Amino acid sequence: MTPADLPGFFARREDLNAADFIELDYAFECYGDPRLAAAHLCSEQSTAQWHRVGIDEDYRPRFGAKVLDLQVEGRRPAPSYATGATTGAGAGEVSVCRVTIAHPHGNFGPRIPNLLSAVVGEGVFFVPGIPLIKLLDLRMPDGFLSAFPGPRFGIAGIRDLLGVHDRPIFFGVIKPNIGLPPEPFAELAYEGWLGGLDVAKDDEMLADAPWCPLAQRSAQLGAARRRAETVTGVTKCYMANVTDEVDRLIELHDLAVANGANMLLINALPVGLSAVRMLSRHTRVPLVGHFPMIAALSRLPGYGIHTRVITKLQRLAGLDAIVMPGFGGRMGMDEAEVLESVAACVDPMGGLAPSLPIPGGSDWAGTLEGVYRRVGSVDFGFIPGRGVFGHPMGPTGGAASLRQAWEAIAQGVSIDEYAQTHPELSAAIAAFGGRG
Amino acid sequence: MTPADLPGFFARREDLNAADFIELDYAFECYGDPRLAAAHLCSEQSTAQWHRVGIDEDYRPRFGAKVLDLQVEGRRPAPSYATGATTGAGAGEVSVCRVTIAHPHGNFGPRIPNLLSAVVGEGVFFVPGIPLIKLLDLRMPDGFLSAFPGPRFGIAGIRDLLGVHDRPIFFGVIKPNIGLPPEPFAELAYEGWLGGLDVAKDDEMLADAPWCPLAQRSAQLGAARRRAETVTGVTKCYMANVTDEVDRLIELHDLAVANGANMLLINALPVGLSAVRMLSRHTRVPLVGHFPMIAALSRLPGYGIHTRVITKLQRLAGLDAIVMPGFGGRMGMDEAEVLESVAACVDPMGGLAPSLPIPGGSDWAGTLEGVYRRVGSVDFGFIPGRGVFGHPMGPTGGAASLRQAWEAIAQGVSIDEYAQTHPELSAAIAAFGGRG
Questions:
Q1: Which residue range is the domain that position A68 belongs to?
Q2: In this structure, are B35 and B172 located in the same domain?
Q3: CATH code of B53's domain
Q4: Are residues B82 and B161 in the same domain?
Q5: Closest residue in chain B to residue A45, using alpha carbons only
């Protein structure tokens, strides 16, 4: 890239047709001239050779990504993180930058794998002069978004299914998460439902294993769910984990749903977001995503992919609810980042329905109020594991303690006061109150 | 976890049946007692509640991951990377540790998404007291590996297809990578083949876009390939990029192969490793993986997933050749890490065929010898883009310059000397020699 090449990778927003571009915000640290680094970032993610040898042509106007805004926020004596490279496209001082780029989505079209290849691919993480970069946000125009059906159920669909409209949805991760055969596993779920769980779910680690095959598990849990519905008079959900090789997802969906699972869990990044999109098109029940691998991409403030981006992509892929690392010390998350992920579930996004945010992490009755206050709405899922299934009075007591905690919140009473007349809540405080 | 719980997550290797376990090496930094942190790491990735309330049972012996070895390598005043968390399971000094864990693969079975969920999932990246962790390696027993067919062609199959057994395989990434319609795009490939390319390939960014649909592109390139084979008398390959939504992969394979593509490119992490496995079972031609997103997981020495792990998983998924960021300053890779990824392609791995390593990054004729000396064998692919298609004499000259560079190496002559009688090599040195 010569200085004369740079202007081809810069543009003013008013000169572009907004409908043709995805906007990308990156933070990066670079050696040398930030304008050159930003131009390389555009070139590498779109067209790094924009004409044939000996032919007077230029593919940048239509196909080139373009810098809309570049801010140099400061200088550092060295990159924030040593990368271990023995050689590299620079050394010494770096500039700390923010850039907004317009990327022409017509380069690839409304396809998740190709979108990922463009915005977090080789052309982003191997830019000359940029050792550290993080994709902070992406904004897709409505026309691009309209190619994605998005969540089929969303928050409204999940609420309608359960008949619950005025409070958080209470999920419980059945524990012990692995090891139990189907029959006692179903018994635990049944006890949880009786105590007031809306949804009993498989752990994200529970696969279609020989010691607890999905066929038998979903049959047992489906039957237990119907028994619980008869006893309690309200709809209950069993969320079966169908995470498996992509060519088994449809088959496992059909099997689990036929047996009585009325929600499904899928580990979004391990199966791939495109596989989630495929399953979302097929599913007859709400599809809930779990978050393995996301932290490996997102934890460091200055490198990787921001969680809000991955949350948006999960919603784009059609997840009706999104489990995410939540508030409090247990998950070590920055509170603002959790809130940004919650917002990515529910904020306007073309015509896509909102996904139910489920921030979680070692929750129990005593953490409910904090989650509710932070989310600022009842539109969330609350998802303890041991807080229900490790409760000293068993799963029925554990589930009851959640509902009692919500009653206290709804009545404006402290849980300590409410616990004086509610033994399940009292036992939860005694057992889990030290967790902080 | 109480002190009494710890021994359930430790074991001696000689007390375990090796065939039942995957071995995992992690580097981590932890607050507090490293033994407690390591036990939590095992618990969270297997069973965090190993008995039902009120029932005397223990699922750890069969289902628990277990520490085989734990080394504390030192102390630091704070974690190597600040994580941005406002709260967390610790503060202050950390211990720098290495741990080897035996994880019972019977917990989930030979399924890539479930393997990923176990070894790089929530249970690894959200361990109490461990803000930073990296999966450095995984070793799978032969019985587990035998459930994976692995590469269908591998190095031997690719060599047989091309009839090339005694030198590196010469790939060229057709440039301009995006923007050209099928006919001139095919013409560029044809010129490259005439000059001596073995394989002309689509860029990893080139999708099935309306301005260059895969149907027309593969038809044009397939026909051009056959013309080049007639003219040169040797087999040539066109590698079509079929990266797309997972439910289109089989269809695009069938289309491209029917039209004359005899290799396929797929962006492994963007489509998902499980989708690669699915396509590998179906493919009739060698399947080549490209590396978008991998750096986002692997670049930092102290966090994420080591490239060798992802290379092993790509081979497990059945990729016949693996494009990886290569040597030299352009990609900013640590040389040892590239060599570890090359080794992961070719070292013994149960009954799995070796994958052809293709280390790349702004290569041209002048970088060939360095790649060859570092790999230490002819079993690699060499993959320039502009080094062929940006050559001042055009793609035929660019491809010829590669072959001339190899002739010089084979004859023990310096390329500068060889260039004196070979104008294409001479022109490459003049055009690209300043790249370093």
A1: 3-145
A2: no
A3: 3.30.70.150
A4: no
A5: B205
Q: Are residues B357 and B417 in the same domain?
A: yes
B165: burial class by Cβ within 10 Å (0-12, 13-18, 19+)? exposed
CB B208 to CB A123 under 8 A? no
Shared domain check, A407 and A266: yes
Taking alpha carbons only, the member of B45, B53, B49, B52 closest to residue B24 is: B45
Longest dimension (CA), chain A: 85
How is residue B335 written in tokens?
A: 């040389």
Mean pLDDT by 10 residues, chain A (436 residues): 93 98 98 96 94 95 97 96 67 94 98 98 95 97 98 98 98 96 98 98 97 98 98 98 98 98 98 98 98 96 97 98 92 92 98 97 95 97 96 98 98 98 98 78
Question: What ipTM was assigned to the predicted interfaces of this complex?
Answer: 0.97
Is the sign of the CA dihedral A125, A130, A135, A137 positive or negative? negative
Helical pair B112-119 and B273-282, crossing angle rounded to 10 deg: 160
For residue B393, give the 3-state DSSP assignment: coil
Q: From CA B367, how far away is CA A360, in angstroms rounded?
A: 50
Domain total of chain B: 2
User: Which positions in chain B touch A44 (Cβ < 8 Å)?
Assistant: none
Q: Among the three residues A125, A145, A165, which one is the final residue of a domain in this structure?
A: A145
Q: Is position A290 annotated as part of the catalytic site?
A: yes
**B138, B190: one domain:** no
Residues B135 and B180 grouped into a single domain: no
Q: Which residue in chain B has the smallest CA separation from A303?
A: B296
Integer CA distances (angstroms), B201 to A46, B182, B190, in order: 17, 13, 11
B134: annotated active-site residue: no
Q: What is the rounded distance in angstroms from the CA atom of residue B145 to the CA atom of residue A431?
A: 43
Label residue A138 left, alpha or beta by phi (over 0 means left) and psi (-120 to 50 means alpha): beta
- Alpha carbon distance A188, A173 (integer Å): 10
- Domain termination site, one of A89, A123, A145: A145
Read off the CATH number of the domain in which A256 is found. 3.20.20.110
User: Letter for the amino acid at B343?
Assistant: A
Q: Does A10 touch chain B (CB under 8 A)?
A: no
pLDDT digits (tens, 9 = 90+) for B260-297: 999 999 999 999 999 999 999 999 999 999 999 999 99
Residues A239 and A379 in one domain: yes
Give how far B301 is from chain A: nearest CA, Å: 6
* Four-residue CA torsion sign, A193, A197, A201, A204: negative
Residue A66 shares a structural domain with residue A140: yes
- Nearest residue of B to residue A188 by CA position? B52
